[in-house]
Amino acid sequence: MSQDSARVILHVDMDAFFASVELLRHPELRGLPVVVGGTGDRGVVAAASYEARSYGVYSAMSSVQARRLCPDAVFLQGDHAHYSRTSAVIMEIFRTLTPLVEPLSLDEAFLDISGSRRLLGEPLDVAQRLRCSVKEETGLSCSLGIAPNKFLAKLATTSAKPTASRGGPIEGPGVAVVSPGEELEFLHPLPVGRLWGVGPATLAKLAPLGVVTIGDLSEVPQELLVVVLGPGAGAHLHQLSLGRDNRPVVANSEPKSMSQEQTFAQDISSMDALRSELVRQSEAVASRLRHHGYRGRTVQLKVRYRDFTTVTRSQTLEAPTDRGTDLVRTAWSLLLRLPVERGVRLLGVGVANLLRGELQQQLSFDDALAGLRDDPGRRNPSRAALDASDSEWDATNSAVDAIRNKFGAELIGPARLAGQAKQAHGQQWGPAAEHDVDTASKSGVPPPAETS
């Protein structure tokens, strides 16, 4: 453990993040069981307040099951863009302590303050000050774990969390510390299921070995674990059982993929309807690629059928792309090979093997108009589709991005989507219920306020 002894790693996890952000916008809902996610029958719970958790509602549960467990829950469709903006504010607060901030998700991050201890003070004091700063600047609470490595810090955070009750969260300590030299004393009594990578299948393989706690696992020879679990998992879990994790905190890590998916209110078996949805999603993914300065080489297609069978297909392109037309063409060729007549419940398009492309110069709206005046032929979308070279497509995409930046994403898009009903592009957790407005008004929930 000597390599870890000089390290001080913080793991910060916001408390019931999505639900807590919604409660800031809807303070009249405090004290009620609130669930954020897809509000329709095919929705999925993204987050639950501590009141809702006391009924057994948790993330990734189907909305139907959540309603069954907690009939009085208030369901909110969620606003991923707003949560992302709030997350950006929180991450900047973290960066006032150290530049070594590794976000794991919108509401979770590792911080390495090893090199700042003399400047910042004792780690426990640093953590308490950070909790206060987050609360003062955002109105949100968080829990922290402190340890010599990432693995132990994340485990410690769980010990610091509030617990659920019908009357609201019962505050935990807020900060939990695993000091150097105390790693195994903290780790070994814990259930082995608390280890990363230990799910039901692995637990079933470990049970015949008499493994119940992490301490039990540490006593199993690594050679035997490799035989039972395979070389990768066996060696990995052996190291974790001894509290060893030498991974550094990596700031500004590059994304591995970008994707978009949609769960439909009704199963779709029409190729024409699926083609339109492919176009919509491909445009959304391509726009995000260009916005962040990436191009991708591997196009991915995800299809989930009505029986919940999920199929994924992928194809690697000769050259990386950030064009929606390339994504549509490739994803469509993959979809044509699948039996959509079974009824498609969910469709998704993604791009992996991302590379930093040349950042396109962002055109202003006036520049975009000037480009159209200089080349009137570009106003004819069918001619552009047939005759445009790569550079012309890039220029056209830049013009479209400029128009969307000024007037909104719904103003301009592929001709195939013209006149179609607006889709909830940002919805991550399934379709909305058909009567969301009525349900919300009966619960005393106003529509989410516009934010800037």
Structure description:
The protein has 452 residues and is of the alpha+beta class. The protein folds into three domains: 9-181 and 435-452, Alpha-Beta Plaits; 188-241, DNA polymerase, domain 1 (Orthogonal Bundle); 257-417, 2-Layer Sandwich (Dna Ligase, domain 1), CATH 3.30.1490. Helix content is 40%, strand content 19%. It contains 18 helices and twelve strands. The strands form three sheets. Strands 5-6-1-7-8 form a five-stranded mixed sheet. A four-stranded antiparallel sheet has the order 9-12-10-11, covered by helices on one side. A hairpin with a 7-residue loop joins strand 2 (34-37) and strand 3. Helix 11 packs across helix 12 (231-241) and helix 13 packs antiparallel against helix 14 (324-335). It is globular. The two termini are 48 Å apart. Mean pLDDT is 83; it is low at 359-388, 421-426 and 434-452.
